[in-house]
Amino acid sequence: MTAKKVCVVVGVGPGNGAALGRRFAKEGYAVALLARTSDTSGPLAASLADARAYSCDVTDATSVASAFDAIAREMGPVHTLVYNAGSGVFGTVDDIDPSAFEGAFRVNALGLLLAAKQVIASMRDKGGGNIVVVGATSSRRGVARTAAFAPAKAAQKSLAESMARHLWPQRIHVCLIIVDGVVDLPRTRAMMKDKPDDFFVAPDDLADTAFRLTEQPRSAWSFEVEARPFKESW
Fold first, then answer.
1. Could you tell me which of 84, 72, 184 has the C-alpha nearest to residue 135?
2. Separation between Cα atoms, residue 145 and residue 2, nearest integer Å
3. What is the DSSP string of 1-54?
4. Closest C-alpha to 164, from 110, 123, 222
5. What integer pLDDT is reported at residue 1 of this predicted model?
6. pTM
7. What is the pLDDT of residues 1-19, one digit of tens each?
8. Between the CA atoms of 40, 42, 44 and 50, what dihedral angle is there, to the nearest 10 degrees?
9. Which of 29, 42, 72, 98 could form a disulfide with 24 if both were Cys (CB 3.0 to 4.6 A apart)?
């Protein structure tokens, strides 16, 4: 159990998830790092003060409950939840397998619901908290190759908005970051070798946006903000 405020980052990979963990740790939070495997979360937890890695499959209610029970027992009540898990299954309606379609919904929408339900009661009891959801521009439109991704992200966005309308009066700040651009990762760099640095969304900068949302005064809370490089067409 820690005396620090606890931040849970759900979906910790080498890009945004790791950057979010580092950012909240830098601000003095104890950080719980959740991922299906410990490939990234384990070494990251070892490198940060008051950080722990937890195995969690966000599509499975039992796995989510087990992870959050351990966090409450070992670290304390959750002050901030950052939901960064997101399934990037792409293809047209001809290409997408129904199981992949369903899986995208389970990761993006069901997982958010399961994680949020684990923290809302304690946030309410403690007088408030934050739930930050990392979304995508695909939630706003369905282009040809987002037959699975766009509907799942749209469901996630609608769930986040519903949560915000219900929870803001209870002092729980629910907000959504629309990521509009290509996140800077080794695999995206390899795919786009001709692109300059400023073409990409820098994970550390996105993490800074997420943290600053949690610091907003209640009289001027934001629900939806965009994270977009200046070179991105929009």
1. 84
2. 45
3. --SS-EEEEES--TTHHHHHHHHHHHTT-EEEEEESSSTTHHHHHHHSTTEEEE
4. 222
5. 76
6. 0.96
7. 778 999 999 999 999 999 9
8. 150
9. 29
The CATH code of domain 6-227 reads 3.40.50.720
Distance (Å) of CA 65 to CA 68, 103, 123:
5, 19, 16
pLDDT in tens, 85-119: 987 789 999 999 999 999 999 999 999 999 999 99
How many whole angstroms from its chain centre is CA 227?
13
Of 174, 188, 163, 160, nearest to 16 (Cα)? 188
d(CA 187, CA 22): 21
Q: What are the structural domain ranges in the chain? A: 6-227
